Amino acid sequence: MTKTVHPMPPLEPSDAHPDAPAFRDAMARVASAVHLVTALGPEGRIGLTATAVASVSDAPPTVLACIARGSRTLAAIETSGTFCVNTLPESLAELAEIFASRRGIEGEARFATARWGRLVTGAPVLLDAVSAFDCRLVAAHDVASHRILIGEVAGLGGAGPGPGLIYRGRRFGSA
Predict the structure, then answer these.
(1) Radius of gyration of the chain from Cα atoms?
(2) Range with the lowest mean pLDDT among 13-17, 24-28, 61-65, 152-156?
(3) What is the torsion angle, in degrees rounded to the nearest 10, for the CA atoms of residue 138, residue 143, residue 147 and residue 152?
(4) What domains can be seen in the chain, in order of their start residue?
(5) Alpha-carbon span 64 to 50, nearest angstrom
(6) Helices (H), 14-60
């Protein structure tokens, strides 16, 4: 993948409380790893693209993911009590676009575009993920428009080494 530089104008310093567009502009400058958060709900497999994902602890292994409260994926996670965080390799940028609802592909059809399996919980695991964290939901906290999900890792998967996909400047790309 060719690295394209997209210059961003400097942010104007301000001590005023930032509005939503200013905050989004500032966050667009932060490079984030790209993940698919997936679940197996009553209507089948479901998932979304997420960048608000982080490790919490290694004892026990725990991760968090922030998901909009109106999300169908969130509803499936809360119903099943399980989810999987699949860290995308650079080569699967198109899959990130699909799961971000940018290609008009919805529901189960999203899963036809890649290779999937299951680990301990039954949540969909991307076989070509850099790493996959198969989780049991242990806590959830509402903050503003999102719910922070805390998952205890029940299983690990992934294809391993290789460049990961990042999101910066409102684009998917490489580090």
Answers:
(1) 16
(2) 13-17
(3) -30
(4) 33-159 (2.30.110.10)
(5) 11
(6) 20-27
How far apart, in Å, are the Cα atoms of 47 and each of 73, 116, 122, 145, 170?
6, 12, 14, 18, 20
Report, as an integer, the average pLDDT of 26-37. Answer: 89
List CB contacts of 49: < 8 A, sequence separation 6 or more. Answer: 34, 35, 36, 96, 97, 99, 100
What does the pLDDT read at residue 135? 98
| Contact by Cβ (8 Å): 139, 125 | no
* pLDDT tens for each residue of 8-22: 666 667 777 788 888
Assigned token pair, 140: 């959830």
What is the Cα–Cα distance from 78 to 37, expressed in whole angstroms? 13
The whole-model pTM stands at 0.89
Identity of the residue numbered 35: H
